[in-house]
Amino acid sequence: MASIIKTEKLKKTYGQITAVDELDLEVEKGMIFGFLGPNGAGKTTTIGMLTTIIRPTSGTATVNGYSVINEPGKIRSSIGIVFQDFSVDTILTGRENLDMSAQLYGIQKAQRKDRIDELLALVELTKRADSLVRTYSGGMKRRLELVRGLLHRPAVLFLDEPTLGLDPRSRVTIWKYIKEMAEREKTTIMLTTHYMEEAEEMCDQVAIIDNGKIIKQGTPEELIDTVGGDIVYLKAKRYDEKLLRNLDFVKDIQIKDGCATIKVENASLNLPELMRMVPDIEKVEVRSPTLSDVFLAYTGRTLKEDSGQSSWMDDAMRYTTQGR
After folding, report:
1. Start-to-end CA span in the chain (Å)
2. What is the secondary structure of 169-205 as a DSSP string?
3. Can you give the pLDDT at residue 299?
4. 3-state SS string over 195-234?
5. What's the pLDDT score for residue 250?
6. In the CATH scheme, what architecture does the domain 229-288 have?
7. Which of 15, 37, 111, 304 is most buried by its number of CB atoms within 10 A?
8. CA nearest 98: which of 111, 90, 88?
9. What is the pLDDT of residues 207-257, one digit of tens each?
10. Which helix (H) or strand (E) holds 74?
11. Per-residue confidence (pLDDT) for residue 214, from 0 to 100
């Protein structure tokens, strides 16, 4: 399938700091593609370059066949963006917000109402369409932001941390709407996230990015399969790491702050022997691997769920102050 997003050695530096380091990436048309990584990994800067908010230091990139360097206007007219922070006007109604945006996109009056009604129905906001946005919940505002990005039928919709700050129930609801929109609108979606379960649930492909480089890419299932085995968490007063590593069924160990993350084969069979080798166990937990374990396996550290995220606008302002 044809690539709708492609980068070759895409790089962005800020003085001596390399935010994105010669990134090679291809995203196929029609998929939901996720950038998974912590704050400062480079995912926000990458998306900023792809949306022409930030100018690359070197390398090339195309979106929907257009160059981010030479054809930024054509890219902007063929993409939608939903920023991390809410940007809907709270003193307008939901319908008025969409109508104003539709006019800015150049959608003719004859088509505006039908398109707005269609999208409001898609995210179940029809009954609240004429209520002021300041009366909306956070989840409702996010749903309104999502459909606003789809008004002009973009080829690619970029979502920056689309569920950040939402409660778990609202987050699951937003996942549902994003998947429905991608299928119904035939829109390629590229999102940034630091929630592992979001990447697993939402994305057809995931790129794990850290220190400005993609360290692993594939479907969530493919990435998890590279870890293999089961994951055992132990909390104990002390560990004999050398002894544990010598056990045939132990594949990897990470010990930090008194807690051990141990990858083992067939935990249901081998857990009793493992526990005999660790005195004074305070807590034990066994589970199947997740994308969090993939990140740990390839970086040697955890991806914290509560890590803060910088906005694309922060990067744009930083870029502007340092000059083109």
Report:
1. 35
2. HHHHHHHHHHHHHHHHHT-EEEEEE--HHHHHHH-SE
3. 78
4. CHHHHHHHCCEEEEEECCEEEEEECHHHHHHHHCCEEEEE
5. 92
6. 2-Layer Sandwich (3.30)
7. 37
8. 88
9. 999 889 999 999 999 998 888 788 898 998 888 888 999 999 998 888 888
10. helix 72-77
11. 93
Domain boundaries, the chain: 3-78+154-223+306-322, 229-288
Which residue has 């829109």 as its token pair?
Answer: 187
Q: State the Cα angle at 230 between 274 and 266, rounded to 5°.
A: 65
Apex 20 CA angle, 15 and 21, nearest 5:
95
What span, in angstroms and rounded, lies between the C-alpha atoms of 97 and 162? 19
- Return the pLDDT at 226: 86
Segments in the chain below pLDDT 70: 1, 303-324
Q: Do domains 3-78+154-223+306-322 and 229-288 have the same CATH topology?
A: no
Angle at 313 between CA 147 and CA 177, to 5 degrees: 20
> pLDDT tens for residues 15-32?
999 999 999 999 999 999
What is the structure's pLDDT at 311? 45
Asked whether 40 and 62 are in contact (CB, 8 A), the reply is no
